[in-house]
TrEMBL record:
InterPro entries attached to this UniProt entry: Homeodomain-like_sf, HTH_TetR, Tet_transcr_reg_TetR-rel_C_sf
Name of the protein in its database record: TetR family transcriptional regulator
Domain HTH tetR-type: 4-64
Keyword Signal: no
SUPFAM superfamilies according to UniProt: Homeodomain-like (SSF46689), Tetracyclin repressor-like, C-terminal domain (SSF48498)
Source organism per UniProt: Streptomyces amritsarensis
Length: 175
């Protein structure tokens, strides 16, 4: 196994375990066991748990953001399309809310910078999607709707929180 394969196996294991059980509840030995990567190589690739957590969140950010962007690209109504994408995500098996908010909830200010970067990127994406001439606060309001729907769905998985948030977003767009 080369370093690339080892890195992918470690990140796959980290993502599954951290997202399901929480960052603090999962030790490096558990990651090693789940990935099948020897402990020496794990620590050579990720010298500290913090570096593995950052790498896991960075990879998740790239994949999550790319999926959302692809879903809304070319949509006749891009803002409602965001909430349609969320509704599908909320129904995925194993959905446990936002990995970035979960990480911040566990680690507080010690959470990796990628948590803040992810939220800033989401805000920027929403700002790109609002219609020309919309009030500047609309992107802020949409971010609150996305985050609120995601938090509610983490407690009660299913599409309904996204559908309700979409209704509110459509009201804001009509104003």
């Amino acid at each position: 196994m080369d370093d690339e394969e080892a890195r992918n196996r470690l990140l796959d294991a980290a993502e599954e375990l951290f997202y399901r059980h929480g960052i603090q509840a999962v030790g490096m030995d558990r990651i090693r066991t789940a990935s099948g990567v020897p402990l020496k190589r794990l620590y050579r690739l990720y010298p500290a748990k913090e570096s593995l957590v950052s790498a896991y969140l960075e990879r998740r950010d790239r994949r999550w953001t790319a999926s959302l962007r692809a879903s809304v690209a070319g949509a006749a109504e891009p803002v409602p399309a965001v909430f349609d994408w969320l509704a599908r995500w909320f129904c995925e098996p194993g959905f446990r809310g936002c990995a970035f908010l979960n990480a911040y909830g566990e680690l507080g200010v010690a959470a990796p910078e990628v948590v803040r970067v992810h939220k800033a990127e989401l805000h920027a994406l929403l700002a790109e999607l609002v219609p020309a001439g919309a009030p500047p606060a609309l992107a802020d309001q949409l971010l609150i709707l996305v985050e609120g729907a995601t938090t509610v769905a983490a407690l009660s998985p299913g599409p309904e929180p996204a559908r309700r948030a979409r209704e509110v977003a459509e009201l804001l767009l009509r104003q």
